[in-house]
Automatic annotation (TrEMBL):
Keywords: ATP-binding, Kinase, Nucleotide-binding, Transferase
Lineage of the species this protein comes from: Bacteria, Bacillati, Bacillota, Negativicutes, Selenomonadales
Domain (Phosphagen kinase C-terminal) ranges: 24-255
Alphabetized PROSITE patterns for the sequence: PHOSPHAGEN_KINASE, PHOSPHAGEN_KINASE_C
GO molecular-function term, one example from the UniProt record: protein arginine kinase activity
InterPro entries (UniProt xref): Arg_Kinase, ATP-guanido_PTrfase, ATP-guanido_PTrfase_AS, ATP-guanido_PTrfase_cat, Gln_synth/guanido_kin_cat_dom
EC number of this enzyme: 2.7.14.1
Role this protein plays: Catalyzes the specific phosphorylation of arginine residues in proteins.
Identification of the protein by name: Protein-arginine kinase
Gene3D superfamilies cross-referenced by the UniProt entry: Glutamine synthetase/guanido kinase, catalytic domain
Reactions catalysed, as given in the entry: L-arginyl-[protein] + ATP = N(omega)-phospho-L-arginyl-[protein] + ADP + H(+)
Family to which this protein belongs: Belongs to the ATP:guanido phosphotransferase family.
Species this protein is from: Selenomonas sputigena
Binding locations of ATP: 27-31, 92, 126, 177-181, 208-213
């Protein structure tokens, strides 16, 4: 797969609707934080120390590719435009925090776009792996194999009592952050989403927008992750999150059934109106596009809309993002009106209507 596809392609395998419970759980992700001994954390390291981390990480990439049987693209953030960096965030391949300072920062991104290694983010190394649906085991297995390769070559900071040492205290221990991306229109429409948001911190979970803590919730999509790492094993953290998500999935499905039972006419009307706008609109605002997309996906999952592949959700989700639209247009200075028209055009193409 060409490296240019990183910024122009709109299909992401980890958002395909083929995973377990994919009617509610869009994707699962595992992130492992690792640091090299005797080198300060990135926020305290000088340029020469950051360069040493980058060089040592790059030297291990060949072994990572061999172990994973997957080629990785190396992306030097200092050589990326601001637009390209933001496209990588929109594709969930790097974090927003990764964009703050490009000095000695690079990302190794797998050919299938399901794995990435961030060098000199908050920690020296952030290993990220993703999978479709509710499947934390597959990305954990991939992240762990990458971790094994890196630990065989690098002196990773580890304490017998504390575990892996990380820049953020909440990651000390396993260094693991497990998260899932959920589509919860049923709980939002029935006004029960507040229960999930309020209860989650009490069981050690954090609820945020799909781009992480502090980001806005859009299109009825939420990210749920573990808050702490210390004192629990990787298996316990993953099992706890899976059990909690399993309960949320059950609640969301009950809410959807209630909507069909008591508000069927309203839901069908909203779904088809949304489908019509997405299919024929000549201008779409970003927030409007995601709100409409959420309704259409709900309609597909409930059997209201037939003959439309649920896979369009992931494609439209990315193709409606502002930086991505500017990237494929080759113009980072597009006006809002131009972006909104381009968004509507791309969405029409994905839905199979190019009138």
């Amino acid at each position: 797969m060409a490296k240019e596809e990183l910024f122009s392609g709109h299909h992401l395998a980890w958002l395909e609707p083929s995973g377990k419970d994919s009617d509610v759980v869009l994707a699962s992700r595992i992130c492992l934080a690792r640091n090299i001994q005797r080198i300060p954390f990135p926020n305290r390291a000088d340029v020469s120390q950051l360069a040493e981390v980058a060089e040592r990480a790059a030297s291990a990439l060949g072994d990572v590719e061999e172990a994973m049987e997957e080629p990785f693209d190396r992306v030097d953030m200092a050589q990326c435009t601001s637009l390209e960096k933001n496209v990588l965030v929109e594709k969930h391949l790097v974090s927003r925090k990764f964009l703050k300072n490009s000095t000695c920062r690079s990302a190794f991104i797998s050919n299938d776009r399901c794995m990435s290694i961030l060098v000199n983010e908050e920690d020296h190394l952030r290993i990220r792996a993703m999978a479709a649906g509710l499947d934390l085991e597959t990305p954990f297995g991939k992240a762990s194999r990458i971790d094994d390769v890196l630990e065989a070559q690098l002196d990773i900071a580890f304490d017998e009592k504390m575990g892996y040492l990380t820049s953020c205290p909440t990651n000390v221990g396993t260094g693991l952050k497990a998260s899932v991306m959920l589509h919860l229109p049923g709980l939002v429409y029935t006004e029960n989403i507040g229960n999930i948001i309020n209860v989650s911190p009490q069981i050690g979970l954090a609820v945020s927008g799909i781009y992480g803590e502090g980001t806005e919730t859009v299109g009825n999509m939420y990210r749920i992750s573990n808050q702490l790492s210390l004192g629990l094993t990787e298996k316990e953290l993953i099992d706890n999150l899976r059990m909690a998500v399993g309960e949320i999935v059950a609640q969301e499905r009950r809410a959807r059934k209630a909507l069909l039972l008591y508000q069927k006419d309203r839901i069908e009307d909203e779904v088809w109106r949304a489908y019509g706008v997405l299919r024929y609109a000549r201008s779409l605002d970003g927030g409007e596009a995601l709100a409409l997309l959420s309704r259409v996906r709900l309609g597909i999952d409930l059997g209201i809309v037939e003959g439309v592949d649920a896979g369009i959700f992931g494609d439209v989700l990315l193709a409606s993002r502002t930086n991505y639209l500017c990237a494929i247009a080759g113009n980072e200075n597009m006006s809002k009106n131009e972006i909104d028209r381009k968004r509507a055009e791309i969405v029409r193409q994905i839905l199979g209507n190019t009138d």
